[in-house]
Design a protein that fits this description.
Length: about 90
């Protein structure tokens, strides 16, 4: 099992589901969706459907690229450098 945390989303995926999800993300045509929703009021224009009919994940180009990088199962020993992690950290 894989537990994938991305932004405010959590995915619990089996090995087969993780591979399918990675393949799906690789096939998304970013330019198509940005053109299709260019007049949308939302900043995020790339939809990722879910099995729940009333829930769609919307991402922008940068988020999709980050998610693709995160689920890349080809090189499982990839170590991220601190500047590659776009995360707001608040020191108390």
């Amino acid at each position: 099992m894989y537990q994938l945390l991305f932004n405010n989303l959590t995915f619990d995926l089996s090995s087969v589901e993780m591979t399918s999800f990675a393949n799906y993300l690789d096939q998304i045509d970013i330019d198509y969706w940005e053109t299709e929703y260019k007049y949308s009021i939302y900043e995020k224009k790339i939809p990722i459907p879910t099995l729940q009919s009333n829930f769609i994940i919307l991402l922008n180009r940068k988020e999709l690229e980050e998610l693709r990088y995160l689920v890349d199962c080809i090189n499982e020993y990839k170590i991220l450098k601190p500047f590659e992690i776009n995360y707001l950290m608040v020191s108390n």
